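Quick illustration, no need to memorize.
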Amino acid sequence: FISPRAANLFEYAISVENDCLVCTTYYKRYMESIGVDINNVDYTPEEELVIEYAQAIVRDRKNIPQDLFNRLKEKIGEEGLVVLTTMGMFMIANNYFNDILHVKSEFLE
């Protein structure tokens, strides 16, 4: 439904918004490995859209703007929105798991 790069940026944006050091570090390193400077990204419209959604679901999951839902459905369809949301929920769970159990990043040792 979205490009692999957009999917990784979506999960990175969730991790940043959740302040999960392990996942943020992982995705930053991954993006660097494919030649993307996470601090200087030229986002595509698709990437901007999914990053906006990532930030919205972490900030206030009960109040996602209808306009954002409409733009997502127009771009990726209803099934795509379900898949993207599921990805987001797994990422949020992963962030919480790492934080609750104080998981250390292998990249920070």
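The chain has one domain: 4-100.
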